[in-house]
Amino acid sequence: MSSIGVGLIGTGFMGKAHALAFAAAAATFDLDRRPRLAILADADAERARISAGRWGFARSTGDWRALVADPEVEIVAIATPNYLHAEMALAALDAGKAVYCEKPMATGLAEARRMAERAQGRPTLLGYNYLRGPAVGLMKAMIAAGELGEVVAFAGRFAEDYMADPETLHSWRCVRALAGSGALGDLGSHLIGLAHHLVGDVEAVAGEVSTVIEARPLPGGGTARVENDDQVHALLKFAGGARGVVDISRVAWGHKNHLAVEITGTRGTLVFDQERLNELRLYRPGQAPATEGFTTVLAGPRHPPYGAFSPAPGHQLGYGDLKTAEVAHLLHGLAGREPLTPDFAAGFAIERVAAAIERASKEGRWVAIERD
Ligand SMILES: NC(=O)c1ccc[n+]([C@@H]2O[C@H](COP(=O)([O-])OP(=O)(O)OC[C@H]3O[C@@H](n4cnc5c(N)ncnc54)[C@H](O)[C@@H]3O)[C@@H](O)[C@H]2O)c1
Fold this sequence. Notes:
Elements: E1 2-9, H1 13-28, E2 33-41, H2 45-55, E3 59-61, H3 64-69, E4 75-78, H4 85-94, E5 98-101, H5 109-118, E6 124-126, H6 134-144, E7 151-159, H7 176-179, H8 183-199, E8 202-210, E9 215-217, E10 223-225, E11 231-238, E12 243-249, E13 258-265, E14 268-273, E15 279-283, E16 295-298, H9 306-309, H10 319-334, H11 344-363, E17 367-368
Parallel strand pairs: 1-2, 1-4, 2-3, 4-5, 5-6, 7-12
Antiparallel strand pairs: 7-13, 8-11, 8-17, 9-10, 11-12, 13-14, 14-15, 15-16
Nicotinamide-adenine-dinucleotide (NAD) binds at residues 9-15, 41-44, 64, 79-82, 84, 102-103, 127, 129, 186.
């Protein structure tokens, strides 16, 4: 099997998730080319060196531009804070590389538009890993096969509590120029991506974004203002006619990764929660009255990509497996086996919905999603 050179930027939470996924993908999936861990970059060169040794990268650097320019690197994977995505992705595209970038794609609409324009006709993929889960795949297949009838409603919630404590320190995530929006970009982008994936394009939104904890402590003492939202409540109209509601929060005590959706059709209902990612709850009308109710389907080899990991149903996949499946999708896409999605064009569509929710909140009205 031939190999394909990978350059990864970032050694934090997502950097490690990418590294593990690139290392596992060829053993898990039937790939055309095996990822070769060529170079790992981090602003902290010593951290890059240590992580490269642990994760199996041949080389490391403190200069991401050297990674992008290196002829051994064919895929540039970007796992850095949001404000660096555009600069790094544009440089990688200019160098002729395939780009695999974490979400949200950018800190604002102008940057996202530039990335989408530059990426036209070029291979790109965004890190919307929750789309890879077996239950999400089953939901999509059931909806596409018409098993739910006509989809009439989407209710989505993405709640976490990683900033619920007012003593949680101020960080890049609270600064508009570094993060873009707050919970909306960080969590809401996943939820909007899932809504697009399952129900189709959103065409108009109304909503409100709000900041619950206005200032947070700085590491060295004192406090700094939080410049973006902690929570979002919005209504959606889908182009296909369905109506939706979303509730997004980074200050929702108790919730760790509560990316939950409920899809109502004229012939049934689907209920999913990422905190129980191996399960899909399903209600179909017409059941015997005494035992009617929701059925829980437990993921198994009949629900891709589960079978690539295990032949035994109910043994459960985890978060890292979704990242491995995402990397396999990237490599299948580069081999021309399947279209890459969500690419930068689809990511821009997600950003447009997020920006429209902010505008709707500011102007107190419904806002149509722009198309061009
Ligand atoms: N897909 C998901 O489920 C998911 C989950 C968490 C985070 N993310 C996204 O991943 C990205 C990174 O988040 P994280 O939680 O891994 O952050 P993190 O702070 O844990 O890691 C960021 C890394 O980037 C490095 N870095 C910063 N500036 C750099 C530079 N100029 N050059 C090279 N390296 C630099 C840092 O040293 C650090 O290693 C964010 O965009 C975030 O939204 C996605």
